[in-house]
Amino acid sequence: MYIWAVLPVFFQNSGYEQKRIPGIKVRNFLCAGNACLSGVVIYNELITMANTLFVGKVYLHFDELPSTNDHARILLAKSKPAEGMVIRADSQSAGRGQYGSPWLSQPGKNLLLSVILYPLWLPVPKVFLLSKAVALAVYDTVSAFSGSPSGTRIKWPNDILLDGRKVAGILIQNTFSNSNIQAAIVGIGLNVNQNTFPPELPQAGSLAMACGHEINLETVADLLYERLEKRYLQLKNGAIQALEAEYATQLAGMGETRTFTDQAGNTFQGRITEVENDGHLIVETGQGKKRFAVKEVHQH
Hints:
Largest sheet: 7 strands, mixed
Order of helices and strands: HEEEEHEEHEEEEHHHEEEEE
Low-confidence stretches: 1-47
CATH topology of the largest domain: BirA Bifunctional Protein, domain 2
Strand order of the largest sheet: 4-5-6-10-9-8-7
Mean pLDDT: 83
Number of domains: 2
Distance between the termini: 40 Å
Strand content: 25-35%
Shape: globular
Oligomer: single chain
CATH superfamily of the largest domain: Bira Bifunctional Protein, Domain 2
CATH class of the largest domain: Alpha Beta
Structural class: alpha+beta
Helix content: 10-25%
Number of helices: 6
Radius of gyration: 20 Å
CATH architecture of the largest domain: 2-Layer Sandwich
């Protein structure tokens, strides 16, 4: 059931127009010339329960897409969509997580979405601060519905664990202009009502598995938009120290001895001491401190 809305400003800036399809009395489809975005149904009035200023106020909902991030990228290449625009799909045929790994999700069970942001004020050397803010927003959402803040953790760089199981992943794709970010596509996959996972995902979990019952997807989505906007504005308003302190507090393995594996397959013991603003992980080992980029080490 589609009850989503698009503000008129989207059509003004997108190259698309609202076009009534013959025989359809209520629904409008997004069209450019003879090409329409199949699967999206848009109402002429704003219908949203999220208590936000801009995140989720412009909203596209599809039955299926190859990837919500890819669709957001296509929209950005054609126009400048409103900040906070959400592209959501019930199913993805080519969804991706970190490291290019496929993101597997049962249709209609989970939240699969991308949010377009314009953090023009964020310098490139501090780009990972956006990842920290988004990770905290998803952490806030998961802990609120799970009722287990102590069992919810952020796993570097930005996975969300609930009772040791991965329930959410974040993939942020940025475009740059000179020394600043031009646009950010924030992709979020949050397992809500899926109870079974493929054998290759033995550590996957969901909110329903932790709570013992299904949860309304729209209620989770509304809170996610609210928390994402709150954390984004917190970062924009310069509350960086508070964000970094909260991220460090909720980071799995911070100050604890853990097992790591580097790109060469070497396993070693170490303690996370810091996550730098560019995303590098600092691990204290028996041979001193080591600095790792996102794809250079795995924490067990």
